[in-house]
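2024-03-11 09:14:02 INFO queue: dequeued item DUF2914 domain-containing protein, len=160
2024-03-11 09:14:02 INFO validating residues
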Amino acid sequence: MRAPLHATVVVAVVFAATACTITSGPAPSGSARPPVSAASAADAGCRTPKEPQATGLADVRGVAQNAELWALPFAPLPFARGKEIKIVWRMTGAGPLEIGATLPDGTRATRVWGPEEHGGSNWRRPGQEWGTGFVFPKAGCWRVHLTRTSGTGDVWLPVA
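2024-03-11 09:14:37 INFO prediction written
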């Protein structure tokens, strides 16, 4: 027997709504944080941050699993395509840092240098600190994916 069309649509909508979720690490207060959809995280991540930090620059919070993740770009958002951009990262977890940036169409940013581990800083966010240099060749909302042995996360950055 064939299922009615409306039942198939409901199942497809429920599957689509639940299939692509990212769960971030614990909230700073220790309270549980609900899962965030990848689409809403990307939309939120590609907005320009409004709060400059002690460094005078605005940082961007990533969405992570088993970690907390922050980016501190040394250029205003949105970035200019084709120019080298220094970004400092802080990520909790353990192990070496692997990092890459892609657009939804599969275009990859060029990592010019890094990740280079930093020994000290006046940027106060949790985790170890690294610096990188990227060139983003096209405009769009870039997904920067960071992985450690323990912890993984994403930051979405706009490029004009």
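2024-03-11 09:14:37 INFO annotate: The domain at 5-159 is CATH 2.60.40 (Immunoglobulin-like).
2024-03-11 09:14:38 INFO item closed
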